[in-house]
Target: RNA-binding protein 12-like
Amino acid sequence: MASFKHCFLLSMLLALSLSSFQMSMAARHLLQAPTTPLPTIPTMPKVTLPPLPSISTLSKPTIPLPNTPLPTQPTLPIPTLPPLPSTQIPSLPTFPTDPKVTLPPLSSTPLPTIPNTIPSFPTIPFPSPPPSK
Model:
């Protein structure tokens, strides 16, 4: 899975570098091209729309209602509830206590330390250039 990830990243880097090379060549080609005047855009004729038809407002119909008084709302008696019985709540049981656990002492061997210095790598001697004439 890791090798696929590295292969994918490498192919994306290659595609990006090739596309940027093509883009730079295209930009150079556009910069070196002779400039020509841009064509003018023709004016479009204005279109007039026909007016919308008018809708006449209709009168609101009136419905004759009888003028009768409303009946009175009946009242209901409020019931009284009996008192709730009182109950004794039992007390919670006591939990046992855990015994104390003692850990053995740690060993006196020191922990390994991480080195702070970077080891030096051997250098490769390069040949000196030939003398100039």
Remarks:
- The longest helix spans residues 2-32.
- Helices lie at 2-32.
- The mean pLDDT is 82.
- The CA atoms of residues 105 and 111 lie 15 Å apart.
